[in-house]
Amino acid sequence: MISGLPVISIAIWLPIIFGILVLSTGDDRNAPLARILALVGALLGFLVTIPLYTGFVRDTSEMQFVELHDWIARFNIHYHLGVDGISVLFILLTAFFTPIVVLAGWQAIEKRVAQYMASFLIMSGIMIGVFAALDAVLFYVFWEAMLIPMFLIIGVWGGQNRVYAAVKFFLYTLLGSLLMLVALIYLYNQSGSSFAILDFHRVALPMTAQILIFVAFFFAFAVKVPMFPVHTWLPDAHVEAPTGGSVILAAIMLKVGAYGFIRFSMPIVPDASHQLAGVMVALSLIAVVYIGLVALTQTDMKKLVAYSSISHMGFVTLGLFIFNAYGMEGALMQMISHGFVSGALFLCIGVLYDRMHSRNIADYGGVANSMPVFAAFFMLFAMANSGLPGTSGFVGEFMVILGAVKANFWYAFAAATTLIFGAAYTLWMYKRVIFGAVANTHVAELTDLNLREKVIFVILALTVLGMGLYPLPFTEIMHTSVNDLLVHMARSKLPL
Amino acid sequence: MDLMTYLMPAGAEIFLLLMACGILIVDLLIRQRGGMLTYMLVQLCLFGCALVTVGTHESGVTYAFNEMFVDDLMSDVLKLLTYLAVGMMLVYSRRYLAVRGLFNGEFMVLALFAMLGMMVMISANHFLTLYLGLELLSLSLYAMVALQRDSAVATEAAMKYFILGALASGLLLYGMSMLYGATGSLHLGTVSSAILSGKANQTLLVFGLVFVVSGLAFKLGAVPFHMWVPDVYHGAPTAMTMLIGSAPKLAAFAFVSRILVEGLQPLVQHWSGMLVILAIASMAIGNITAIAQTNIKRMLAYSTIAHMGFMLLGLLSGGIEGYGSAMFYAVIYVLMSLGAFGMIMLLSREGFEADTLNDFKGLSQRSPWLAFLMLLLMFSMAGVPPTVGFYAKFSVLNAVVQSGNIWLAVTAVLFSLIGAFYYLRIVKLMYFDAPESRAPIIFAQDTVLLISVNGLGMLLLGLLPGALMSVCAVSVQQSLLLH
């Protein structure tokens, strides 16, 4: 560990400062400078998070790299940051994706380049803040601040129906967050005037209060996950967002919701979580099965992957609410893997879209003939999305199913159908787009990946394979934290 | 006691009165181009007022004029903020009014008299002083709205404002007379102790209270007494709208809290119920109706109504948390509305008002910087962190939850969600739509500097809101709760 340096603060503020610098390059005459500055900022942003992994002490669930300063003394609010085995992985994931997103928009974004790049850098810092905040108000500030750049990203650089999607995205998520705010203020008053999340973990609460708090949190987090039935903003947002926006949405932002369940709902109101676990499992299974079927019928590639994300996130919430170590670690693995895989799939679609300006499956066919290298990468990611053993997609799904068997056989049975549906919708799409005869002259004229795209895909492919073949570096880091969380949740918090 | 010490608590008011009369004469006698000399004198006078206020500040509470007038920490803080708001208003409106031929001595002197009215309201400790301040403020504002004599809309707005304002004053006076009948005094402290003694006629008191609260609601623009707000905001020249929509809200906060908290605290269970209804109705009607507006001044009028409803939530929650949060909310609201109206004036030019929503279309392409500032202002009004509007809402919600009314907090956040929609629409128009006109935005350097400070202030205060929050809490504690 680099002693004394506020590593997390640097990881949060470095991208934001670079974002402001990029913004100050002004209009599109300086676009090349903006791009390079953004890439430098994103890479530096990733480098500074590496000490979080290398310096992380594995055998404790205590918060590490803690920074604690007074912020708003009147309400006992602190600038309080720290990571445990659960959040550290998401911080790395966020920082990892920022350079990729910058590279993905390198050529595709031609108007307002500086603003685009800056939005993503600022987003990156804010999202790291969400994962690292240990003070509820600080968390809330980061949580809400996330909305502003994302709103602009979808609305300014999105597709046809972007305004509708941006407003829907904003209002949906704001509804959830505002209810959470009331719950947080209530907890502040119950916990003896403290906004520290770890203090919330210790507050005794009667059942009615627990259930109301759970519901308030549910609105905030379920919208972000998104869980059935509040998932309808996601396909719209994904379809209309530019490629980079889709990648960040799928890879990071959806994780924020599940992270909220782990950090807030489950440890703060464990009794209500147990009480309502049945509902949560049911909603998760509906997402897995029903949304899987919905994905099968999509004609738009992006929409298909968006529905596939909802289905995969159903797996995550299922893993969380069966309350055992396999389930929870499986859920975490699934979240990380899904980050890589869905990010990669959106990038693949972005590659096609940049060339053909269409996301319709019907417009494609026989792409393998003109883009063989691309087809190979796309194949790998499609396989990972359907959970093929040896890819990262398999590890998480397998662990969750294993955990589900322990809890209830039928949960596992229903969840396992995803292996079939997932394979069906992903591979069927793959077949229609990549194989077969060359559909039209546009497809025949496609050019294969350029160096920049190859670099992105090689990195992602290595990660997906590496995580699938050797998941230990990921599981060992989360192990202690997950176990302690489960122990904590097993204790009732009802007042005696 | 010698005269100077006796008059000390009202030092700033006396200074302002003398200066305003002096400026009026100077403006008449000295021929000048474009009112610049008067303008500089007025700004100097505001600065002088600030010096006097700080200079005459004494810890604790001091009285003047037989305890009809009070000087405490809250009054000093609110007065300083009032000078700031009026000064900012003058900077923002200078070019706007000059182009329309309205930037003359009358306007500025009326603004000073309006400010004097606000200061008297802020420092009043007696129903008559309160009324005096209120009328001085209102009469100056009526005249200012009507200043643009050849504009039918402005004249109509002034007429409406005057008639409804007079009605509200009537209600207020009627209520005061009943309180006087029941308690035998108009002094806030004496009224309070008379009610506490239990000898006052309860029916008469509550009856009077209803009228007083109605009058206050009229002045605040709370539903169902809000009808004048959209018409006046819309019809008045934007500079006057800015004056009506900013500093007087500080005075109104002082006015309402002095009457209800200092004078009528023993009747709290009666008036807090009334405020609940006013607050919810204001948030509901304000936020929902604002969605349907196409004129941004009208939209901001409804937004004011909703914001006042939110501020009332703080007041009715009681305690240092409640009053402190209401004061913080009022201060933040004033800063936000100054910025928003300032932006409207900045975008307007000769013969063009920039007051419809469509005028904001594509602003981010015409001027990315102004669009960004407006974005900060709008998100602040919507209460989205990291802007300071969030902390205003946060502290009020905290007070509401602490007083045990969780359902009220949930109602409030649901209405803020509805409110977020129309603020978001402005952002949408600025960033997602193509501009309707490409006319260059002509602005003066000082205005742009001020609006930059104002807009970025939303963000900076949002990152470090602690100091201002504490100032509000301490001044409320040392004033309202000490009497």
What topology emerges from the helices and strands here?
The complex is a heterodimer of chains A (496) and B (483).
Chain A: H1 7-23, H2 31-54, E1 64-72, E2 77-83, H3 87-104, H4 113-132, H5 136-145, H6 147-157, H7 162-190, H8 197-200, H9 207-224, H10 233-240, H11 243-268, H12 270-275, H13 277-296, H14 301-320, H15 325-356, H16 367-370, H17 372-385, H18 392-407, H19 409-434, H20 441-444, H21 451-469, H22 472-490
Helix pairs in contact in A: 1-2, 1-4, 2-3, 2-4, 3-4, 3-11, 3-15, 4-5, 4-6, 4-11, 5-7, 6-7, 7-9, 7-10, 9-11, 10-14, 11-14, 11-15, 13-14, 13-19, 14-15, 14-18, 14-19, 15-17, 15-18, 15-21, 15-22, 17-19, 17-21, 18-19, 18-21
Chain B: H1 3-7, H2 11-29, H3 36-55, E1 62-64, E2 69-71, H4 73-99, H5 105-123, H6 127-145, H7 152-183, H8 188-197, H9 202-220, H10 228-235, H11 238-245, H12 247-263, H13 268-291, H14 296-317, H15 319-347, H16 363-366, H17 368-382, H18 388-402, H19 406-432, H20 445-463, H21 466-479
Antiparallel strand pairs in B: 1-2
Helix pairs in contact in B: 2-3, 2-5, 3-4, 4-5, 4-11, 4-12, 4-15, 4-21, 5-6, 5-12, 6-7, 7-9, 7-10, 8-12, 9-12, 9-13, 10-11, 10-14, 11-15, 12-15, 13-14, 13-19, 14-15, 14-18, 14-19, 15-17, 15-18, 15-20, 15-21, 17-19, 17-20, 18-19, 18-20
Mean pLDDT of chain B: 89
Q: Into how many domains do the coordinates of chain B divide?
A: 1
Q: What is the CA-atom radius of gyration of chain B, in angstroms?
A: 21 Å
Write out the strand line-up for the largest beta sheet of chain B, numbering strands in chain order. Answer: 1-2
User: What string gives the helices and strands of chain A in order?
Assistant: HHEEHHHHHHHHHHHHHHHHHHHH
Distance linking N and C termini of chain B: 23 Å
Return residue spans of chain A where pLDDT drops below 50 for at least 5 consecutive residues: none
Most extensive chain contact? Answer: A-B, 34 and 34 residues
What's the assembly state of these chains?
heterodimer
Largest sheet of chain B: 2 strands, antiparallel
